[in-house]
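During the reporting period, we have paired protein sequences with backbone structure tokens. One record among many follows, to show the layout:
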Amino acid sequence: MSALAWLFGLGFLALAGPLLFHLIRRTPKGEIPFSSLMFLRATPPTLTRRSRLDNLLLLALRMAAVALIAAAFMRPFFNNNVKLDFADVPGRKTAVLIDTSASMKRADLWAQATKKLKSVVDEAEANDEIAVFTFDSKLEKRVGYLKKSDAANLLQQFESLQIQPGWNQSKLGDALVGIANRLLESQSTPDDEDESSEVSLSDSKLQVVVISDMQTGSSTSALQSFRWPEQIKVRFDPVATDLGTNATLELLPVDENDPEQIRENVLVRNSKGSTSDQFSVSWENSSLPATPFLVPAGSSKILRVARDANSLSSDKLMLTGDDAEYDNQFFAIPPLSQTVNIRYVGDESENDPEGMLFYFKRSLIETPAVSYEVAQQRTTSESNEPGMDPEFIVISRAVSTEETESIDKLLKRGVTLFVVLSDPAMLDSTRTWTGVASMEEASEPDKDDYAMLGSIDFSHPVFAPFSGPRFNDFTEIRFWDFIRPNLADNVQVLARFDNDTPALWHQMAHDKSDIYVLGTGWQPEKSQLALSSKFLPLMMRMIELATKTEPVAANNIVGDSIKPPLGYDRLVWPDGKVEFLEGSSTQTLNLPGVYAFNSSSDSTLADVRVAVNVDPAESQINTMPVDQISALGVEVGTHDTSQEEVERQRQLRDVELENRQKLWKWLVLGAIGLIIAESWLAGRTDRTSRNFESAEQGTANE
């Protein structure tokens, strides 16, 4: 026999009530007045040694009723003598998430993290399983699930990996979402590599232990759109350091009012709670003294940092006066100017708004990094060609035999040719380049009868930048005058008019040069192309492909992925490692510093340098409150230990047994029966007593 609420057993103390009441004699109900007692004070009956119990049966009924009621409140039940063992309780499945982002490089945070991991393993119980994951901008599994008995093996495997914090940004939200999905998926389908240890995962209690510095710069946005599973508990085990000062710097865009670019704007931020506010900034290899400045904690400041002759080509800006050095460098590519030489073979004036050259030259937007030199060859009678080696040639008129031979020599060197068939008379002199087999007879241009671009090959590099839904609409451009060619089989059509006539096509020359042919002109009398928003990016895209200098973001953050420029097959990392690139696959940049793309086969291609810096969010080192994570729906806490779980299951079993047996109902019914019997017996006893007293009083009166 057992009970759910033993505390109600104190109700048995109420048994003393009926016993005391029976020991205390009540005042007799029949009274006979005596004159000699009129001056005495009446006193209630008291309990004395001479008190004796009377009406024992009535007393027994009353005490039994009280006992049954007290027992009913205790909710008793018959135990089936089944004992729960720790082996019957499912263990906890714990995924340990260790932060390896850049901010974990501070002081001894990583050493603290490894100690925390050992503590988690030591706290585990015999039937628990533990796996180790690391996270920064992505989640990685390091050690699969192992039992507590393999704790030494788990720690040894983790140490053998020689993991250290990297340079990526911390994305705590992504890591939590990723590990939650893995745990849920493994409940139904264990991983092949851990099948032996995860077959019982569906019976396990799932929990996550996060070991991190919990810096406020860690991204938690992924949790906003994720419904956290209630069965997964998360415990945060933060690490901290006493070093409280952290400042970071960033180079702002070049000041257009400083053409020599010898002074640049530098933004410095000082974290909240910093104990220092005095810093200095200088360029590497600069002979000038460092620029000192003061930035109060929690604020930022922009200052001008000068370059000298020794640092004009420097790519590293350095900050001193900070406790944490991991973000005290900023890499920037010095501004380098490239000149693109273009030959324009056409007879129109560059100042004539009715000609094509007028719009072509205005589409060439120069930047500090790129400038354009356009040399025009007006007529076929000009014997002297422009004295420069072009990288891009535009032909808008018929060419002579000498010009054809000259241009063909350039094509053998890899120069890109763009033929604009604004006049059908050009076909005879350019047929070797245009790929036109024959021509259909065209009607006279009519302003009321126009064509639009009907189909475009957005997979081709020329139109790839326009493939997005915001840029792929070319239907507002009207064309009135265009040729109707029949093309050779080796020609690739990039765009067609809505009547299926080729508009722009491409072919290769000498297996190394690109030739693009436009079946119309862009002057206003022939089309609206030059007046549209697509003309400028289309011309710039062709020139980018021609010069093999496809734009690459010069400033990136660690973890960014970029595609190598066309023609480049090697990547030199900041640490000097040389990686040979395959195809056009993207490259993930995992180290801060300056990278260089170069070509192993073409020495004429200049290196393309790329600067990579630590994400500014990693410099926000103040501790994130756990309540901020909990507010996003994460179940913060831990699952019960085996001992606690055994006790909880025992209580659940007892409640189930008590609910099934419901002995308290029978006890209450018994108590009610006793109360009824007690009431009947008490009434009968009282009537007998009254009759006896009445008889005595009558005898006395006689």
Notes: The chain has a mean pLDDT of 83. Residues 663-701 form the longest helix (39 residues).
